[in-house]
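Hey team,

Sharing the Aminotransferase class I/classII large domain-containing protein run so nobody has to redo it. Sequence (328 residues) first:
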Amino acid sequence: AIADYLSRDLPYKLSSDDVFITSGCTQAIDVALTMLARPSANILLPRPCFPIYELCAAFRGLEVRRFDLLPDKGWEVDRDAIEVLADQNTVALVIINPGNPCGNVYSYQHLKEIADIAEKLKILVIADEVYGHLAFGKNPFVPMGVFGSTVPVLTLGSLSKRWIVPGWRLGWFVTTDPSGKFIKTKVVEHIKKYFDILGGPATFIQAAVPYILEQTDEVFFKKTINILKQASEICCDRIKEIPCITCPHKPQGSMAVMMKLNLPLLDDISDDIDFCFKLAKEESVIILPGTAVGLKDWLRITFAADPASLEEALVRVKSFCQRHTKFI
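Structure output:
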């Protein structure tokens, strides 16, 4: 069922042999990095990035090398940096699209450029598409697997975001590789052996997956997209009223956005972590400090909330910033 679902957006057909079921996308991430780990190996991660990647890499002994996402270019990948960072020990490049924590959605052309670079460097791409199809801007969602004939792709995903059931812990790890490079190099064989020792999600949830993927009404998806779009606009509009926080790029998808913290405008706030701790204590509003995702003195704001709650939260953030603004 998952192979059929993902094949809808690909120029080739996946089979059930390409799909492995995981306990959420977090386990899929761990499997991907475990399969690639070897002495002296390194992996290229975006900055900012979902922090589980760095934690898994450290646990598996993979060296992390960071390439920047460019806020003034819609958080596109710094392609030149990838070529500088990669060497003979680089095993993979991670792409998160739609983006967490930035809210970006990459164009077909940008993804093609990334695939071409990966092919040139002879490294595979890990495509984290846990927010797949949650796009509400100018760019439609394009799966990285579309370029599987150019470069082998490990596609990671789950039910948690598009169907809004994170507690079900049902994810997938998929080899999108029509050229068969994973099979020829016995990568798939090793993946199967590793999955033999892993615990998967509850079987009754697995049994529901075909119905969920095939029968969910499009109205459900449209409603989710409309809510997220409305919430993202509220978030950006209210942030414009707060001088010490700026949004360099309006979110186009997913459920979060990165905001720049202008510390010189604030009194008795030392950095993004200090800002978030004091905000939580004084206003009971939780925002993730950018340091947690690799960007110091930035903020990751989640807009996956009902509009009324989001409005209230941002009013509190504004009040907090006004109290801590320097008076010159």
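The chain has a mean pLDDT of 96.

Ping me if you want the raw files.
A.
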